[in-house]
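Bench notes, afternoon.
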Amino acid sequence: MLLVGCFADTAPLGPGDSRRDAATDTTPDAGDVGVDTASDVAPDVIVDSGTDATDASDASDASDATDVEPPDTCVSRPEECNEVDDDCDGRTDEDVTVTHYADVDGDGDGAPGTAASDCVVPARRVTNMNDCDDTNGAINRRATEICDGVDNNCDGMTDEGLVVSRFVDADDDGYGIDPVNVCVGDEEGTAEEGGDCDDTNDEINPSAEERCNGFDDDCDGDIDIDEGEALCPDGCDPHLYEEHLYLLCSEPLSFRDAREFCRDETNGLARDLAAIRDADENAFLAGIVTGAPAAGDPWESAAWIGLTDRGRDGEGNYRWTTGEPVDYLNWAFGEPNDAVFPGEEDCIFMINRAAGDWNDNVCDVGRRFICESL
């Protein structure tokens, strides 16, 4: 667009002077007199091409004024616990919160696994996790260890320095079987040494003497054998029943000799012919008698037991040679009859058959016999 402007020039022209743009004519022409260059500055013609540099610069400045981002307002300062990024590092409250743990029992020690972080430690929370039982205020790092099976001071050990290793000694014979830890000063019912093989019998332990009784008295693993030597009499087989030892001896002896044999301490017995107290015991002994090889018929291969009516009490008044009362009898059919040798059949034997029934007979006949020892 071409814009033409007419302006009144009040300054007089000199001879030969022509009108020109004072903006670019700062030097007077020859013959130019009295030209006021300071006031003769307005152009006679103004041309606007649309690409005026000043206009372009102004437009650019206007655009910049709307596109420029606001200045950064984060001023770095030490981080505080206030949920604000004080130090302008993109994180909030870093390194200024406190980690704390639950202290339910109020003993000053916290429970592991209960961690939380806050600006201030809340009530019933502490900054350590040293407790090993947060339900018991008496258990903590400052507690004194006592012998009670509990880690009182939370050091990972229980009753340290307060227990001794012993062996349970139920029969109080100085030897135990099962190992046990007990508190110092509370060793009653225990033994320093183990090795017992029967903690219900104080006569059976490693220091006991081995005897012929069906037990391993000295706990060496051998029954009725001492240093390789058999202790039971030759020809006698030991059998145990309710802590009683019975010996079925195969050498035929009279009733009297059989009893003396059973009572001989050199045989390791010091007992007597067997006394039978009930049907169960009788059945056990019948199994012994019938189970051992024996020559002859059931009557001839029978075995003496300790029942007799010989002596001061007279015929028919039976008694056990041990002196025990007669509370049980198991006579065979028709017995006792004293029929073959009237007045002489004073000693009783067990017939060699399953019933284990009894018969009276003369006492001088040699038979197998049953000894009983406690």
